[in-house]
Amino acid sequence: MPEHAARRRIGWQEVPPRVRSAIEATLGSGVVEAHTQEGGFSPGAAVRLRLANGNTAFVKALGVDIHEFSVQLYRTEAATMAHLPAGLPVPRLLDVYDDGNWIALVYEEVDGRRPAIPWRMDELGRVEGMLAALSDALHPSPWQDAPTFAEVNGDFMEAWTKLALEPPHDIDPGLRRHLDRLIEQGTDLAAIISGDALLHTDIRSDNILLTSNGGVVLLDWGWTCKGAPWLDVVLFGTTVNAEGGADAEQLVLRHPATANVPSGAIDAVLLAAAANYWGLSQLPEQPALPGFSRAYQRAFAEATLRWVDRRG
């Protein structure tokens, strides 16, 4: 499927001087080197900084004039970090700059690399262990006022019924057949995904760093919400399925968070994900997010549907 790399991210020098000055004040030293980290969907700055005093940091920064919706994701991420219990495999947030137009999140730098894609089984095993630790630590949710999955993902919740009732002319016949079955069964997706676990919901290879000591660090908590404790595993499985190298079905079958979840519930979430991406693929391109292209979304939907077909 198409690679999901963001358009050229803005560089450190494109961040307004007032924002850069505030970050340097927080870090207590001037920036002497800034290395942009590519990948992902956001057009915002994502830079590893080396400071004049020898220290390092990681900063992500974005303005509403570049992509307003992503700024809100940054704000959600900042709010989330304050609620995560100590000891989780996440980067340490040092400071937040937010003047209403620009926001910057200043993190302690993590010395790590992204997993290899297609997936390698040893690296996938490390991530599976991290997911199990998250599931244990975040259920029940340490952030009781966090929004629910349904509140944050309204389009996801509605996509499958909309697509079944108003299918585009080129809808995949297999997808249409599966969606019709969900309607005939009276599937209640809201009930299936409800729960009191705090979820990341956007776990992908480009949101993961593998450290040299065998650890795993999970980045980018902008889609945090509450839902069923097994949802993160299934949603992560859709990305593993699309990126290749491993059997996402085996991941779901062996993981402790999903091992006892009814097959029909997993099917419903997978079909909702496929329908959501298929629906998005019908829309005009987003110039600010070319990495999140309609071709990528359609390929993701088709890959997820093939997984559902294999499940029988």
How much helicity do the residues have?
Answer: 40-55%
- Tell me the Rg in angstroms: 20 Å
Q: How many helix segments?
A: 11
Spans where pLDDT lies below 50 across 5 or more residues: 1-6
The main sheet comes to: 5 strands, antiparallel
Task: Look at the structure and give the mean pLDDT.
Answer: 93
List the helices and strands in order.
HEEEHEEEHHHHHEEEEHHHH
How many runs of DSSP E, i.e. beta strands? 10
Corresponding CATH architecture of the largest domain: Alpha-Beta Complex
Distance between the termini: 23 Å
- Return the CATH class of the largest domain: Alpha Beta
Q: Provide the CATH superfamily of the largest domain.
A: Aminoglycoside phosphotransferase (APH), C-terminal lobe
Beta percentage is 15-25%
- CATH topology of the largest domain, by name, is Aminoglycoside 3'-phosphotransferase, Chain: A, domain 2
User: How many structural domains can be distinguished in the coordinates?
Assistant: 2
Question: Descriptors for this entry?
Answer:
disordered N terminus, Aminoglycoside 3'-phosphotransferase, Chain: A, domain 2, globular, 11 helices, Phosphorylase Kinase, domain 1, alpha+beta, 312 residues, 2 domains, five-stranded antiparallel sheet, three-stranded antiparallel sheet
What does this structure look like?
It is globular and about 65 Å long. It folds into two domains: 12-109, Phosphorylase Kinase, domain 1 (2-Layer Sandwich); 113-311, Alpha-Beta Complex (Aminoglycoside 3'-phosphotransferase, Chain: A, domain 2). The longest helix is centred in the last third of the chain and has 19 residues, at 263-281. With 312 residues, it is of the alpha+beta class. β4 (93-98) and β5 form a beta hairpin. α6 packs across α10 (263-281) and α10 (263-281) runs antiparallel to α11. Mean pLDDT is 93; it is low at 1-6. It contains eleven helices and ten strands. It has helices at residues 17-27, 64-81, 121-137, 149-152, 154-165, 173-184, 189-193, 231-243, 248-254, 263-281, 294-311; strands at residues 31-36, 45-51, 56-63, 93-98, 102-107, 112-113, 197-199, 208-211, 216-218, 225-227. The two termini are 23 Å apart. Strands 1-2-3-5-4 form a five-stranded antiparallel sheet. A three-stranded antiparallel sheet has the order 6-8-9, with helices on one face. A two-stranded antiparallel ribbon has the order 7-10.
